[in-house]
Amino acid sequence: MFQALRQRRAVQRVGTFTSPVDLPAWGNAVVGLGAATASTERALRLRYNWLLDGGAG
């Protein structure tokens, strides 16, 4: 109940987001698999990258 009230307040303050791209289910699966693969690769390599690790700004 409390969480629903907090979500309602957040929606009133910030608003909602509607994605401009409507992917089919297979597209969402491909994007999810790509994100999982990239994050796993990043975690396993444990190398510093100036762009990904905040050195660009």
Structural notes for this entry:
- The chain has 57 residues and is mainly α.
- It has a domain at 31-57.
- Helix content is 60%, strand content 0%.
- The chain is built from two helices and no strands.
- The chain has helices at residues 2-14, 25-45.
- The model has no long low-confidence stretch (mean pLDDT 83).
Write the layout of secondary structure elements.
Elements (H helix, E strand, L loop, with lengths): L1 H13 L10 H21 L12
Features:
single chain; 2 helices; mainly alpha; 57 residues; extended
Strand content: under 5%
The total count of strands amounts to 0
| Count of DSSP-assigned helices | 2
- Tell me, what's the shape? extended
Largest sheet: none
Oligomer: single chain
Secondary-structure element order, as H and E? HH
Radius of gyration: 18 Å
Estimate the mean pLDDT confidence. Answer: 83
What structural class should be given to the helix and strand makeup? mainly alpha
Distance between the termini: 41 Å
> Level of helix content?
55-70%
Unreliable residue runs: none
Brief summary of the model shown:
Helix content is about 60%, strand content about 0%. It has about 55 residues and is mostly helical. The mean pLDDT is about 85.
